[in-house]
Amino acid sequence: MADDFELDTGDLQRRMEGALANLRTEFASLRTGRASGSMLDPVMVDAYGSPTPINQVGTVNVPEPRMVTINVWDKALVGKVEKAIRESGLGINPQLNGTIIMLPIPELNEERRRELTKVAGDYAERARVAIRNLRRDGMDQIKKAKADGMSEDDQKFWEAEVQELTDRHIKLVDSSLETKQSEIMQV
């Protein structure tokens, strides 16, 4: 029977925390008016025939609060790195200085700040959906065990466990979103 059913809440929690980690990575790529090397993480350069992250073709530095520099190791890739940054949608105009690409970070205007808060909201909603999907997976396991003979008390216990785990992670997503939105709107 299913009396020995044990839902792997550790696995569910690990996967939900993976969704949170992904959200934090996406939030790090959002520009807030301050320079950050992580804002270049999603930008890929066509290096040697395959898409490569910028931090694998050069050294990314933040020498000033409003400047990011990339010291490209291979002179032949400087143009490709510059092109990748221009086409990335970050809204940054790269300036070349030999093998060093300088990225001055402009002030964000009010309209752009509002757009970025909407993008942050979209990222958070995707994380919530991922967490809810994991909740559904857990509930499906419980329903299957119920069909295999689990008691109703055990079913209610495990459903409450999964729901509590879900609620806790959704709150973390919401608080991360609030923090990021206030950071974006800060002048």
From TrEMBL:
Domain Ribosome recycling factor: residue ranges: 23-185
One cellular component (GO) term of this entry: cytosol
SUPFAM superfamilies: Ribosome recycling factor, RRF
Pfam families in the cross-refs: RRF
GO term, biological process aspect, one: cytoplasmic translational termination
Keywords: Cytoplasm, Protein biosynthesis
Name of the featured protein: Ribosome-recycling factor
Native species: Wenxinia saemankumensis
